[in-house]
């Protein structure tokens, strides 16, 4: 154990409101079995992703090796180690969408927000994630933005759809 307080030198730069909330979470889970995943989930809810210094703080707080925290955070796809956009665009590249022009939809989105697949815009408005079938094949080609499904798309429809989410 590295002391009762979880704020060692490794996380000295993150003493902000979010960190204070996270300290409370760490306090609740400290010493409990299976604490790491729920703590990582709650940390990600707070920060939007898992910054390195936050993972170091979690390792300190739960008295775990940083390699274990990092290993779990990189193993599960639910965890993100880079900042993500406020709006997550999931472009379906499954078979039904593929045959109905998903590539053109993706191209249109990339042209509009100027990011690579898996990337996030500099203003953190959008993250672009290609995905396999999202279960709405009847509406192909389909994208999801956050929890909204947009189907039977054409590349021309993309700018107007994205506009609705900008500065939301
Ligand atoms: S293939 Fe795109 S929703 Fe099923």
From TrEMBL:
<keyword id="KW-0001">2Fe-2S</keyword>
<comment type="similarity">
    <text>Belongs to the complex I 24 kDa subunit family.</text>
</comment>
<protein>
    <submittedName>
        <fullName>NADH-quinone oxidoreductase subunit NuoE</fullName>
        <ecNumber>1.6.5.11</ecNumber>
    </submittedName>
</protein>
<dbReference type="GO" id="GO:0051537">
    <property type="term" value="F:2 iron, 2 sulfur cluster binding"/>
</dbReference>
<feature type="binding site">
    <location>
        <position position="133"/>
    </location>
    <ligand>
        <name>[2Fe-2S] cluster</name>
    </ligand>
</feature>
<dbReference type="InterPro" id="IPR036249">
    <property type="entry name" value="Thioredoxin-like_sf"/>
</dbReference>
<dbReference type="InterPro" id="IPR041921">
    <property type="entry name" value="NuoE_N"/>
</dbReference>
<feature type="binding site">
    <location>
        <position position="92"/>
    </location>
    <ligand>
        <name>[2Fe-2S] cluster</name>
    </ligand>
</feature>
<feature type="binding site">
    <location>
        <position position="137"/>
    </location>
    <ligand>
        <name>[2Fe-2S] cluster</name>
    </ligand>
</feature>
<dbReference type="GO" id="GO:0016491">
    <property type="term" value="F:oxidoreductase activity"/>
</dbReference>
<keyword id="KW-0479">Metal-binding</keyword>
<keyword id="KW-0408">Iron</keyword>
<dbReference type="InterPro" id="IPR002023">
    <property type="entry name" value="NuoE-like"/>
</dbReference>
<dbReference type="GO" id="GO:0046872">
    <property type="term" value="F:metal ion binding"/>
</dbReference>
<keyword id="KW-0560">Oxidoreductase</keyword>
<feature type="binding site">
    <location>
        <position position="97"/>
    </location>
    <ligand>
        <name>[2Fe-2S] cluster</name>
    </ligand>
</feature>
<dbReference type="InterPro" id="IPR028431">
    <property type="entry name" value="NADP_DH_HndA-like"/>
</dbReference>
<dbReference type="Pfam" id="PF01257">
    <property type="entry name" value="2Fe-2S_thioredx"/>
</dbReference>
<dbReference type="InterPro" id="IPR042128">
    <property type="entry name" value="NuoE_dom"/>
</dbReference>
<keyword id="KW-0411">Iron-sulfur</keyword>
